């Protein structure tokens, strides 16, 4: 059940090119991530990541903070944002290789500089609000709530010290700008601490999950860490396809190539990479839908491979697997409709993920290491080959 990294597919989370989670759960769980890192040259002790899917209570978070601080500097800078969800990283974090455009350039640089980082992906609701008290207990030092604009080298407390910087969160169209400003504040504060030659431990978390996209997380800290640090492979910048449901964005799709091949005659396969016309400009999504249990993404094309109309449809469902007590999102079928004919591929059981993740695959293919298989022997799918690379699909949860 936990074979989410089977074949060449994996779940990917983080600041760099990753897509948003499958989250069809309603009501959504509301969890907040916590990211901890240290100034250059100081390593965090290696800690086992929290169990996948674990929503951490105060009692579970405390040992992590205690262990980490057993070796890291006791000058702790806590950036406490009003709201934060993992989606803020994924949505505004320079996704899809578009790093310059991300809202977290400084954070990304600090994480890259730090030799290690700790990511607790899902604090239960209310736990982050307890973090100052937990840190105070571990450090034996009262918190100092500081306004970043008045922070100077002189006003820095000495070790042990708990410096708390409150950061706002902006909803809607403001989100990215506010996150960007916060990123600058993080940089300014850490530069000040650095200029005072104080090694530090920094923590970034939020008091509440951000309103826009509620996120229920289950990734391992290692996965997050890796992708946070991962430099995106160079590729042309293209925006994802986003389908808006009644309550806002609900499905996203991104791929480097979306290659479909049709066998017009024996031994003649005509191919076309749909990616270019899918992402720029965005293709028509007419026929797509989202509901509690399923989502359907329909990409509509014209004049492809000599077909007047061609649609590429992804049928996804959310299922509850009692064994893991979790919801898993499955890409059930991929369907091609072309001038009145239909070809249907079943998604193999490889194409699933915990509902909270987006699904990422270096390759989704019907021919090489196939994860897509023809519906049956007679289905038109036998005339088609599908070959997608760097494929990511996800469904949002919005409330
Ligand atoms: C989807 O909604 C977002 C805002 O939530 C908007 O910016 C975007 O243009 C919408 N897309 C479509 C295709 O309507
Ligand atoms: C698409 O895939 C076929 C094999 O199925 C390959 O021959 C062709 O070169 C690919 N085209 C593109 C544009 O990737
Ligand atoms: C989805 O689930 C929520 C609560 O679980 C319910 O209120 C809502 O009516 C459902 N929507 C649909 C379309 O079934
Ligand atoms: C859809 O989800 C609702 C709960 O949200 C559940 O009661 C219902 O049985 C599900 N339907 C299917 C077809 O799985
Ligand atoms: C598409 O149709 C045109 C004319 O109908 C034909 O000349 C061309 O060879 C066809 N292309 C393919 C790939 O079959
Ligand atoms: C494809 O899925 C359908 C149910 O959705 C099932 O009846 C059929 O047997 C599957 N085909 C294969 C080849 O597994
Ligand atoms: C294959 O599936 C189609 C429906 O997609 C059905 O009409 C046909 O009878 C099936 N063929 C076999 C051999 O099961």
From TrEMBL:
Pfam families: VAS1_LD. Residues 249-393 form the V-type proton ATPase subunit S1 luminal domain. InterPro entries: Ac45_acc_su (IPR008388), VAS1_LD (IPR046755). The keyword Signal applies. Keywords: Signal. Gene3D superfamilies: 2.40.160.110. It comes from the Eukaryota. The keyword Membrane does not apply. Residues 1-30 form the signal peptide. This is V-type proton ATPase subunit S1 luminal domain-containing protein.
